[in-house]
Amino acid sequence: MSGGIGLVHWLITAFSYVLALRFLLQLVQADFYNPVSQYVLKFSDPVCGPVRKLIPAKGRLDAASLLVMVLLHVVFWLFVQKNSIGFPESAVAPFAYSGFNITSIFLNVFFAALIVLVVLSWLMMANPAGAQNPIWPIVNQLVEPLAAPLRQIIPPLGGLDLSVLVLFLGIQFAKMLNAQFWSLWLR
User: Long-range contacts of range 172-181, CB-CB < 8 Å, 24 or more positions apart?
Assistant: First the structure.
Protein backbone atom coordinates (compact mmCIF):
# COMPACT_ATOMS: atom_id res chain seq x y z
CA MET A 1 0.00 0.00 0.00
CA SER A 2 1.42 3.39 -0.91
CA GLY A 3 1.74 6.13 1.68
CA GLY A 4 -1.31 8.09 0.56
CA ILE A 5 -3.57 5.06 0.38
CA GLY A 6 -2.25 3.85 3.73
CA LEU A 7 -3.07 7.21 5.32
CA VAL A 8 -6.59 7.18 3.87
CA HIS A 9 -7.06 3.61 5.14
CA TRP A 10 -5.90 4.64 8.61
CA LEU A 11 -8.27 7.65 8.66
CA ILE A 12 -11.22 5.52 7.54
CA THR A 13 -10.41 2.89 10.15
CA ALA A 14 -10.00 5.48 12.92
CA PHE A 15 -13.30 7.13 12.02
CA SER A 16 -14.92 3.68 11.87
CA TYR A 17 -13.88 3.11 15.49
CA VAL A 18 -15.66 6.32 16.44
CA LEU A 19 -18.74 5.22 14.49
CA ALA A 20 -18.64 1.79 16.15
CA LEU A 21 -18.50 3.47 19.55
CA ARG A 22 -21.44 5.67 18.57
CA PHE A 23 -23.44 2.59 17.55
CA LEU A 24 -22.55 0.65 20.71
CA LEU A 25 -23.12 3.56 23.10
CA GLN A 26 -26.62 3.98 21.71
CA LEU A 27 -27.20 0.23 21.79
CA VAL A 28 -26.35 -0.05 25.49
CA GLN A 29 -28.06 3.28 26.23
CA ALA A 30 -24.92 4.78 27.74
CA ASP A 31 -25.07 8.06 29.60
CA PHE A 32 -25.53 10.75 26.96
CA TYR A 33 -24.08 13.45 29.22
CA ASN A 34 -20.81 11.62 29.82
CA PRO A 35 -17.87 13.54 28.27
CA VAL A 36 -16.78 10.45 26.32
CA SER A 37 -20.26 10.08 24.81
CA GLN A 38 -20.34 13.78 23.99
CA TYR A 39 -16.97 13.55 22.21
CA VAL A 40 -18.07 10.55 20.14
CA LEU A 41 -21.33 12.24 19.17
CA LYS A 42 -19.75 15.58 18.30
CA PHE A 43 -16.97 13.97 16.29
CA SER A 44 -19.28 11.72 14.27
CA ASP A 45 -22.29 14.02 13.93
CA PRO A 46 -21.10 15.94 10.83
CA VAL A 47 -21.23 12.68 8.86
CA CYS A 48 -23.94 10.74 10.71
CA GLY A 49 -26.31 13.68 11.23
CA PRO A 50 -27.39 14.02 7.58
CA VAL A 51 -27.62 10.23 7.19
CA ARG A 52 -29.76 9.98 10.33
CA LYS A 53 -32.25 12.38 8.75
CA LEU A 54 -32.65 9.89 5.90
CA ILE A 55 -32.45 6.76 8.07
CA PRO A 56 -33.62 7.51 11.62
CA ALA A 57 -32.65 5.25 14.49
CA LYS A 58 -35.04 2.44 15.36
CA GLY A 59 -35.10 2.20 19.12
CA ARG A 60 -31.55 1.54 20.23
CA LEU A 61 -30.21 0.64 16.77
CA ASP A 62 -28.37 3.43 14.97
CA ALA A 63 -28.48 2.23 11.37
CA ALA A 64 -26.91 5.47 10.10
CA SER A 65 -23.60 4.74 11.83
CA LEU A 66 -23.48 1.24 10.35
CA LEU A 67 -24.41 2.50 6.89
CA VAL A 68 -21.67 5.14 6.95
CA MET A 69 -19.14 2.50 8.05
CA VAL A 70 -20.16 0.14 5.25
CA LEU A 71 -20.09 2.88 2.64
CA LEU A 72 -16.66 4.12 3.74
CA HIS A 73 -15.13 0.66 3.53
CA VAL A 74 -16.84 -0.30 0.26
CA VAL A 75 -15.82 2.94 -1.46
CA PHE A 76 -12.26 2.60 -0.17
CA TRP A 77 -12.05 -1.01 -1.38
CA LEU A 78 -13.38 -0.08 -4.81
CA PHE A 79 -10.94 2.83 -5.04
CA VAL A 80 -7.96 0.68 -4.10
CA GLN A 81 -8.98 -2.15 -6.41
CA LYS A 82 -9.63 0.19 -9.34
CA ASN A 83 -6.22 1.78 -8.92
CA SER A 84 -4.30 -1.45 -8.42
CA ILE A 85 -5.82 -4.33 -10.39
CA GLY A 86 -9.04 -3.04 -11.93
CA PHE A 87 -12.57 -3.63 -10.77
CA PRO A 88 -13.38 -6.77 -8.76
CA GLU A 89 -14.53 -9.92 -10.44
CA SER A 90 -17.21 -10.43 -7.81
CA ALA A 91 -19.82 -7.89 -6.75
CA VAL A 92 -19.77 -9.45 -3.27
CA ALA A 93 -16.07 -8.76 -2.63
CA PRO A 94 -16.37 -5.09 -1.57
CA PHE A 95 -19.12 -5.97 0.89
CA ALA A 96 -17.16 -8.95 2.22
CA TYR A 97 -14.16 -6.66 2.75
CA SER A 98 -16.42 -4.17 4.51
CA GLY A 99 -18.05 -6.89 6.64
CA PHE A 100 -14.66 -8.24 7.70
CA ASN A 101 -13.34 -4.80 8.66
CA ILE A 102 -16.47 -3.73 10.51
CA THR A 103 -16.72 -6.99 12.44
CA SER A 104 -13.02 -6.70 13.33
CA ILE A 105 -13.56 -3.13 14.52
CA PHE A 106 -16.44 -4.14 16.80
CA LEU A 107 -14.43 -7.03 18.25
CA ASN A 108 -11.43 -4.72 18.80
CA VAL A 109 -13.66 -2.15 20.55
CA PHE A 110 -14.85 -4.81 22.98
CA PHE A 111 -11.31 -6.12 23.48
CA ALA A 112 -10.00 -2.61 24.22
CA ALA A 113 -12.96 -1.95 26.53
CA LEU A 114 -12.10 -5.10 28.49
CA ILE A 115 -8.46 -4.04 28.84
CA VAL A 116 -9.49 -0.56 30.01
CA LEU A 117 -11.99 -2.10 32.44
CA VAL A 118 -9.36 -4.38 33.95
CA VAL A 119 -6.76 -1.61 34.27
CA LEU A 120 -9.25 0.85 35.77
CA SER A 121 -10.48 -1.76 38.25
CA TRP A 122 -6.91 -2.29 39.42
CA LEU A 123 -6.35 1.46 39.70
CA MET A 124 -9.60 1.90 41.60
CA MET A 125 -8.49 -0.68 44.16
CA ALA A 126 -5.43 1.45 44.82
CA ASN A 127 -7.32 4.76 44.68
CA PRO A 128 -11.12 4.61 45.07
CA ALA A 129 -11.36 8.19 43.82
CA GLY A 130 -10.60 6.76 40.37
CA ALA A 131 -14.30 5.92 40.08
CA GLN A 132 -14.78 9.59 39.18
CA ASN A 133 -13.04 8.95 35.85
CA PRO A 134 -15.59 9.53 33.04
CA ILE A 135 -14.28 6.53 31.11
CA TRP A 136 -15.23 4.06 33.87
CA PRO A 137 -19.05 4.19 33.50
CA ILE A 138 -18.91 4.11 29.70
CA VAL A 139 -16.59 1.10 29.59
CA ASN A 140 -18.62 -0.62 32.27
CA GLN A 141 -21.84 -0.03 30.31
CA LEU A 142 -20.21 -1.46 27.16
CA VAL A 143 -18.85 -4.60 28.80
CA GLU A 144 -21.65 -5.39 31.26
CA PRO A 145 -24.14 -6.80 28.68
CA LEU A 146 -21.49 -9.37 27.70
CA ALA A 147 -20.12 -10.08 31.18
CA ALA A 148 -23.38 -10.32 33.16
CA PRO A 149 -24.61 -13.58 31.56
CA LEU A 150 -21.16 -15.12 32.04
CA ARG A 151 -21.11 -14.13 35.72
CA GLN A 152 -24.28 -16.15 36.24
CA ILE A 153 -22.52 -19.23 34.85
CA ILE A 154 -19.01 -18.61 36.20
CA PRO A 155 -19.05 -17.29 39.77
CA PRO A 156 -16.19 -15.08 41.02
CA LEU A 157 -13.29 -17.07 42.41
CA GLY A 158 -12.05 -15.44 45.62
CA GLY A 159 -12.85 -11.93 44.38
CA LEU A 160 -11.42 -12.63 40.93
CA ASP A 161 -13.93 -12.15 38.11
CA LEU A 162 -13.22 -14.92 35.62
CA SER A 163 -15.95 -13.75 33.24
CA VAL A 164 -13.55 -11.13 31.88
CA LEU A 165 -10.98 -13.82 31.09
CA VAL A 166 -13.64 -15.88 29.31
CA LEU A 167 -14.62 -12.76 27.34
CA PHE A 168 -10.99 -12.21 26.32
CA LEU A 169 -10.78 -15.77 25.05
CA GLY A 170 -14.19 -15.53 23.38
CA ILE A 171 -13.24 -12.34 21.53
CA GLN A 172 -9.99 -13.90 20.32
CA PHE A 173 -11.91 -16.94 19.10
CA ALA A 174 -14.45 -14.68 17.37
CA LYS A 175 -11.58 -12.82 15.65
CA MET A 176 -10.27 -16.10 14.26
CA LEU A 177 -13.75 -17.13 13.09
CA ASN A 178 -14.23 -13.70 11.53
CA ALA A 179 -11.04 -14.03 9.50
CA GLN A 180 -11.97 -17.55 8.37
CA PHE A 181 -15.54 -16.63 7.46
CA TRP A 182 -14.77 -13.52 5.43
CA SER A 183 -11.78 -15.10 3.71
CA LEU A 184 -14.22 -17.49 2.05
CA TRP A 185 -16.04 -14.52 0.51
CA LEU A 186 -12.88 -12.74 -0.59
CA ARG A 187 -11.51 -15.60 -2.72
Answer: 172/111, 174/107, 175/104, 175/107, 178/100, 178/103, 178/104, 178/107, 179/100
